[in-house]
Description:
It is a single chain. The protein is α/β, with parallel strands linked by helices. It has 13 helices and 17 strands. Strands 1, 2, 3, 4, 5, 14, 15, 16 and 17 form a nine-stranded mixed β-sheet that branches. Strands 6-7-8-9-10-11-12-13 form an eight-stranded parallel β-sheet.
Amino acid sequence: xxxxxxxxxxxxxxxxxxxxxxxxxxxxxxxxxxxxxxxxxxxxxxxxxxxxxxxxxxxxxxxxxxxxxxxxxxxxxxxxxxxxxxxxxxxxxxxxxxxxxxxxxxxxxxxxxxxxxxxxxxxxxxxxxxxxxxxxxxxxxxxxxxxxxxxxxxxxxxxxxxxxxxxxxxxxxxxxxxxxxxxxxxxxxxxxxxxxxxxxxxxxxxxxxxxxxxxxxxxxxxxxxxxxxxxxxxxxxxxxxxxxxxxxxxxxxxxxxxxxxxxxxxxxxxxxxxxxxxxxxxxxxxxxxxxxxxxxxxxxxxxxxxxxxxxxxxxxxxxxxxxxxxxxxxxxxxxxxxxxxxxxxxxxxxxxxxxxxxxxxxxxxxxxxxxxxxxxxxxxxxxxxxxxxxxxxxxxxxxxxxxxxxxxxxxxxxxxxxxxxxxxxxxxxxxxxxxxxxxxxxx
Length: 443
């Protein structure tokens, strides 16, 4: 591979914004020099006026393969990732079959090696009966253990106290938890079904999967992690009350951390009237005051990372109100530019966007040589223009073909994405021969 210089780029990295010339040679970043350095390479990119960022690491996606490939697959969703400046993903185990055996896990890795345009890893799914397999996992390539402490797909709800203790006390890997109290959700759903029958309005979803259901389960997970010293990462916090369970200490000193997902940072219960089941997700979107608390927590350190919980469904699956419509939405392609737009509004700084979406996932999961613009690190790079454009259906890369953000005018656009030095995405065009690499975790 030849060398490339990005001239006069606005580099956002390590808490600074600087005008730089950045050189990549092969798959690595080799030089970061002040703009106007006079250095020369085989290829030159005029990045004047563009933001040059580390590629986003999305620790929380559902690519639906195997078993649900009518909705999404590794090829389509890794393309959506590249179009959004996302250069690495970590995929969830609730597929068909679920990733709860070593054989199913290796099949996923083999599939990604042959299909994914971007870098990848996979969670191993905990069940009530498989904690004995944790010791056989390759900690250098498996990102963590996914624990569903709330209603989930198939045999993945871990609701037995003995099994929960065996998960929390059974690994030194990250336990990434979905926390919702199933008993509370079941009671709430029954009450709404008695009132409405099966056609419960979608606006009731946030009262079925309510604040109490989230808080009760998250508090239990934190208590167990404290008892056993577990590396707990609570995914998709959605309530102000849950934030009280987390502290503001630096990420590198924590063993209990928290993630916010794009849906809960963008939408609230007030958006159900306009968007309906398109914004139905688990946990549910909550009140405007909850969203405001989550946004503030991005800047205080109570929330450590931002991800998407990218969960494509066909629009036909999104019919049926609070009880029957599928939960989840495709957000991967628009996560970075959505957060940069929030930065433009003053909600969060550009440096904090890069910290929560690139740096912090790399540090939290101990990912080797990714997540930063640094000499010797892999050349995972997103180039972003500041320009206004309105999302139409034709712009959507995800296989499901829709987005709750259709019609929204963005103020940033990803123009190029490099993965390990390869130009995977270039202004609407993809290098379909490019392949990402298996992430390496530096234990």
